[in-house]
Amino acid sequence: MFRDDLPTVSLEELQDHDGTGPDASVWVAYGRGVYDVTEFARGAHPGGDKILLAAGGDIAPFWDLYAVHKTGWVYEVLEELRVANLDSLGAERLAEAARARAAAAAAGGGVFANEPARSPALEVRSQRPFNAETPPGALCASFRTPSDEFYVRNHLAVPDVDPATHVLTVEGSGIASPVTFTLDDLASKFEQVDVEVTLQCGGNRRREMSRVRNVHGLDWDRAAIGNAVWRGPRLRDVLRAAGLPLDEDAVVSVQPAAAGASAEAAPAGLPAGPGRADAEASPTKRLRDLHVQMEGADTDEGGSPYGASVPAWRAVSAEQDVVLALQMNGEPMPRDHGFPLRAVVPGVVGSRSVKWLTRIRVADEESTSFWQRKDYKALGPATDWASPDLERARSIQEMPVQAAVLRPLPRGGAEAAVVDGTRPVAVEGYAWSGGGRGIARVDVSADGGATWQEAELRDESGQRDGRHWAWVLWHASVPVPAGADTTELVARAVDSSLNVQPERVGPQWSARGLLNNAWTRVPLTIRRPAACAAGRDAGAPSARAPADGSMRRA
Amino acid sequence: MFRDDLPTVSLEELQDHDGTGPDASVWVAYGRGVYDVTEFARGAHPGGDKILLAAGGDIAPFWDLYAVHKTGWVYEVLEELRVANLDSLGAERLAEAARARAAAAAAGGGVFANEPARSPALEVRSQRPFNAETPPGALCASFRTPSDEFYVRNHLAVPDVDPATHVLTVEGSGIASPVTFTLDDLASKFEQVDVEVTLQCGGNRRREMSRVRNVHGLDWDRAAIGNAVWRGPRLRDVLRAAGLPLDEDAVVSVQPAAAGASAEAAPAGLPAGPGRADAEASPTKRLRDLHVQMEGADTDEGGSPYGASVPAWRAVSAEQDVVLALQMNGEPMPRDHGFPLRAVVPGVVGSRSVKWLTRIRVADEESTSFWQRKDYKALGPATDWASPDLERARSIQEMPVQAAVLRPLPRGGAEAAVVDGTRPVAVEGYAWSGGGRGIARVDVSADGGATWQEAELRDESGQRDGRHWAWVLWHASVPVPAGADTTELVARAVDSSLNVQPERVGPQWSARGLLNNAWTRVPLTIRRPAACAAGRDAGAPSARAPADGSMRRA
């Protein structure tokens, strides 16, 4: 409903009030109404934090998800907060987005008929399979990423797993015969540990790499990463219960892949495959030279499951903290994140933390899945998709040091973020490294790297170096160059092994667009109040003037 | 003795024949004589490998060290190999260098009166204390660096330790009272393990950084690194024998530093300091939050020993392989490397591998030594020597991924290495990373980084990722750009966590000149036979022409 007593604003003006501007004001839209919910959101109102997800945008999809809000009194409360009308073009654009969401939901069908409900705050990169990242502002809002805002990386449709009947089968080299565990077994027969782990997609920040040269993969920006607490038994304890020795130097009989597969298929009473019939002749290897393969309940059109593997030494190590998670952030695992059971392999590319986990197999080769053998590979610049080196290339396991700026960022398709030139820029972001390495330092520069200052690090994990699986969040207040109209904001992290991020994306380019960990850069447009520059109206308040009215330069 | 029947060559011509040229010929000088020892050196002659140390230079200092050579028949043999006279300027320059060596040896006195004999092959960076690196050609000649060519990093004079009376004292938090071990205890009461570990000075490759902007420290080129097998008991086994629990989560009483120091000094029968008198009140900490301090027998003018520390979790970990070495490469430790006992901390900056080890103390703070608190620090670009941040900065422990070209290199003070443009350049080097990370890939480019190819890696360690403490050597055969007269050879390594070397030295600059791990670059001058280019004498053999006489371009 249009209200003549209020001003009319554009969608861009609405988007400017997303809580990250100088006055931190939060506006949301509902139909033609524009509402200032700054105080409301930060008060004690239940779901006040959720309304922030709609900051600078349409509140309707969030209200669809959190149905409690759709009552008459809520509309009354909201109308009291109204500050403007949204112009007709803006309203039409929001309606168009709503129609697209509805069409996408209706189009679900076939194998994608049973996808879970999802937060509309997620920035969708593909609908089927569903892949989405967290809005940057939400990512730096809390040290532990809320489960419903955590980035989603699905390779296939989300399986519908019945927790009452779900079992995990553990088998393979070093294990006499397959052992199955119910969820109840996993929850009651093993010590339950909480491990705080940041997961990151191997393609995080691919968008920047694709600007250098075309790459293959989802158009991930910088938020295909998140930090959560995962709870369940240790993988090593479950492997021990299945009979595997936990000493990486132990010599075990290698079970041929065929024997492993046929062991279950063989009818009771018959020999369980060649590996069993002639156990004396089976070759042996040290456990450290083997791999732990994992399969999920998600399957492709041919019925083959998603699969991945990690080296066996990592799976059995007391210091690598691999967990079979039943819970995420203190609640049952959400379906998008692997309900009811997923592996969480700390310090390693997210794709090895297999969701909807059904099977673990100790084997003398990596998982034979497409994703292990041809997808998440560390490719050099000389290797492309036609190269025979693709399968020989090293599988990505531990990830390199990474950091990204989450604020300020360009809004609404702009090339540059607009900042107030009369005060230092407040910069926020995350930093993380693989392999349990903590973050030693984050350097921030508002002059393209000519001068640097160190950011303040925020680490709520309590983890030590070497087992530091969680990220750090960081912030800095950095002066912009005097007199400049534009500049480049740069940040780079150094991890506890003193590895640094590379300066440019280009030399890291690879055909799959993986492993972009170059310095994070944000072009800035520096605004200084025109009144100030011209010497007129120096006393007049401005939306972008500092609260104390100070002006640094004429 | 000058021989009229032979040609006369300059020192530069002599230096050209150092075994790395296209025909791999090795010349050495002795007095005015120049000898081609190519075949001799590569034959079965005892010490034939040692003569290569003099390749392209004066053989006299090597013969001084290996006195067996100074017999009449050796001179006779040598004279048969004579190919030229050294010109008088060259002979005078070699004599001048010999006088300088003699003066340096004679100047030894005071605390430096008892330094060990050293290989003249070492490239000396400082005489007192003695610091020297391996010649690059020797470094890539063997996967295990010979002990007498291993880089030497001494912070003080080399102590003269009597192995018969030397003891190691282990004390501090979690240890009821100091325990001492003789060398015989360490060699006989514990399992002896061989651990192959590459050690690297934190200042390796400082020379390149000092070209960006002045830094403080020894002028290390690229060879302050070496790889050896170290044998002795595990540190964790010795700590366990002293009573320390090996669980990093164990809660131990923290012994105040003062109590630790006075425990030994107290006369028998008297209370051994406040920590003992009131043990109930002593604070507790988890072992993982403590440090293992180490002291050497080398002392400064005030009698304070060299000291360093590592986090306690690393010292007690079964996977970090910290060893108390009694042997290096299968022989007793050389004096320059810590005779009779040194710590070897794999994957960590060399300065924490304390030599001439006398004392280990578990404490709730890092070593208070100058070298721990003010020297080997990971400084950001904003920190200089006057900065109060110096002591607060993080101590270097694990080192980042590193690589350097060892061949070809510029010779005799030239800016560029000269290569034969008619064939691919044979490139050799090393690559290593800290923290047990192996090397995933080495990319090599002979066009400044525009195009890359992968090097062949040589790994004789048999170590797995995560406990990969040894380096790899690598080689590649890389075509130079057609038609160019100069180019830049570039190499960069990627470690198993997929961390990369940074592109440029400049952004890594720090006041102490530590941690330079930028891409390794060698300017090349490309020579193509003039005869070939001009179309004359195409059939005439040339010193730089390929053996098969082929010419790639006119």
UniProtKB/TrEMBL annotation, chains A, B:
Lineage top rank: taxon: Eukaryota
Requisite cofactors: Mo-molybdopterin
One GO CC term on file: mitochondrion
Domain Cytochrome b5 heme-binding: 6-87
InterPro entries in UniProt: Cyt_B5-like_heme/steroid-bd (IPR001199), Cyt_B5-like_heme/steroid_sf (IPR036400), Ig_E-set (IPR014756), MoCF_OxRdtse_dimer (IPR005066), Mopterin_OxRdtase_euk (IPR008335), OxRdtase_Mopterin-bd_dom (IPR000572), OxRdtase_Mopterin-bd_sf (IPR036374)
GO molecular function: heme binding; molybdenum ion binding; molybdopterin cofactor binding; sulfite oxidase activity
Pfam families: Cyt-b5 (PF00173), Mo-co_dimer (PF03404), Oxidored_molyb (PF00174)
UniProt entry tagged with the keyword Iron: yes
GO biological process: sulfur compound metabolic process
Annotated segments matching region Disordered: 265-284, 535-554
SUPFAM superfamilies registered for this protein in UniProt: Cytochrome b5-like heme/steroid binding domain, E set domains, Oxidoreductase molybdopterin-binding domain
The entry's keywords: Heme, Iron, Metal-binding, Molybdenum, Oxidoreductase
Biased composition (Low complexity): 265-276
UniProt name for this protein: Cytochrome b5 heme-binding domain-containing protein
